[in-house]
Design goal:
autocatalytic cleavage, 27% strand, protease, 272 residues, binds asparagine, eight-stranded mixed beta sheet, alpha+beta, EC 3.5.1.1, hydrolase, single chain
Length: 272
């Protein structure tokens, strides 16, 4: 459906939400949506995306920030990335242990020298928060502001029991997120599949060929389902005209959208 900028569309992960606290997930999606949307008053799509994701990292209801799942050694290692579509600027961090990985990713993007930094570089330790995982899922946000800025970001604790040092799709542009002058997209699901398919990049290619954001996201996810079966991917996306869409092949995906006149959020059925 078409929305009026400024628009914020977020997700709290695709997965089996029948086994999680979906009411809490939905409540926290609404809070994150409102927290991020506030930023449009003073900031741009960048601040809206970062603050919505930082809220979800701090919530504990999702597999990101303090809610991150643990690796095989019982430690938290998080990945995050952000991209500003209009300028192709991008910043990401992988295998970090900081309070808000999305803010670290933003620092990498604003610094501009590199795209992806790996490992801890002496930031605030998350040790005191270890063990807060409530089994939620990866978080992401996409936004289009009134100036036409398209921004996408994703943040995750990865996959429970992963090998130490494992990096998923979430900090990789074209996989866990992607933004161009045409679209902003965030993915969630099994990183080992998403890294093979690069669905966020594919959505931009399809939109550049003239397909709608809805058809593009649907066809990429249907392709993943054909190749790898169900239960492994969800995506949200927005285009430069304000068309927004969310789709997944899992049992649910926490998600929500907000503009001046609309606010919607769902975990299970519901059309963005
Ligand atoms: N739940 C997720 O979306 C996990 C994330 N895509 C990863 O594989 O690291």
């Amino acid at each position: 459906m078409k929305y009026t900028p400024p628009i914020l569309l977020i997700h709290g992960g695709a997965g089996d939400w029948s086994k999680r606290d979906s009411e809490k997930g939905l409540r926290e999606i609404k809070n994150a949506l409102n927290r991020g949307y506030e930023e449009f008053k003073r900031g741009s799509a960048i601040e809206a995306v970062v603050e919505a994701i930082a809220y979800m990292e701090d919530s504990g209801a999702f597999d990101a920030g303090i809610g991150s799942v643990k690796n095989a050694k019982g430690e938290i290692e998080m990945d995050a990335g952000i991209m500003h579509g209009n300028t192709w600027r991008v910043g990401a961090v992988a295998s970090v242990r900081v309070k808000n990985p999305i803010k670290e990713a933003l620092r990498v993007m604003l610094d501009g020298k590199h795209v992806l930094l790996v490992g801890n570089r002496g930031e605030e330790s998350l040790k005191e928060f270890l063990g807060n995982s409530q089994g939620g899922d990866t978080v992401g946000a996409v936004a289009l502001d009134e100036q036409g800025n398209l921004v996408a970001g994703t943040s995750t604790g990865g996959i429970s029991g992963k090998y130490p040092g494992r990096v998923g799709d979430s900090p990789i542009p074209g996989a866990g997120y992607y933004a161009t002058p045409r679209v902003a997209v965030s993915s969630t699901g099994i990183g080992e599949i998403i890294l093979r398919v690069l669905p966020a990049k594919e959505v931009d290619i399809l939109v550049s060929m003239g397909f709608s954001i809805e058809d593009s996201i649907r066809s990429v996810i249907n392709k993943v389902t054909e190749m790898f079966g169900k239960g492994n991917i969800g995506m949200i996306g927005i285009d430069s005209k304000g068309y927004a869409y969310a789709y997944y092949n899992t049992v649910g995906m926490a998600r929500g959208v907000k503009d001046k006149n609309n606010e919607k959020s769902f975990v299970f059925e519901g059309e963005i």
